[in-house]
Automatic annotation (TrEMBL):
Pfam families per UniProt: SnoaL_2
Protein name: Nuclear transport factor 2 family protein
Coiled-coil residues: none
Domain of life: Bacteria
Domain SnoaL-like positions: 13-119
SUPFAM superfamilies the UniProt entry points to: NTF2-like
Species this chain originates from: Kitasatospora herbaricolor
Length: 146
């Protein structure tokens, strides 16, 4: 019988999968009824509910993302609730289309139960990603409703 991974271990497994580009495997780290909130997502849905929706989102990222990500300065803070961790890190991002390399700050607050993520509040620097990809005009147009 294997031991259930801790909240910290689940986060580190998630981060390792993201940085290795194994997006199609990531949904398995989430509970069937998981909720992910991308609080600073400037356009599009800020809330994804359910493993099936997450699987579809990760498949889309896997098929279309022009980013290579490396995690740096990773700090995982445990809380007085053993289900909850707060993780802070920077991505060293290489945008394969624009050729730009830059850093993007991140924070995630994860609740992990029985070894699966049940809730995540994600704070990523989406504007930095848009700027590096040369997509700032499209972002502004989307925000203005064009």
């Amino acid at each position: 019988m294997s031991e259930t991974p801790s909240s910290r271990e689940v986060f580190l497994e998630l981060l390792a999968g993201i940085t290795a580009g194994r997006f199609t495997e990531l949904a398995e780290l989430y509970a069937e009824d998981a909720v992910v909130e991308t609080v600073f997502q400037p356009v599009g849905p800020r809330r994804i509910e359910g493993r099936a929706a997450l699987r579809a989102r990760f498949a889309e990222v896997s098929a279309h993302s022009p980013l290579d990500l490396a995690a740096e300065n990773v700090v995982v803070r445990e809380t007085d609730d053993p289900e909850v961790v707060v993780a802070e890190w920077d991505y060293r991002v290489h945008h394969r289309v624009s050729g730009r390399t830059f850093e993007a700050a991140n924070i995630q607050v994860l609740r992990v139960r029985d070894g699966l993520i049940v809730h995540s509040r994600d704070y990523h620097d989406h504007v930095a990603l848009a700027v590096a990809g040369g997509n700032l005009p499209q972002l502004v147009a989307a925000l203005e409703g064009d």
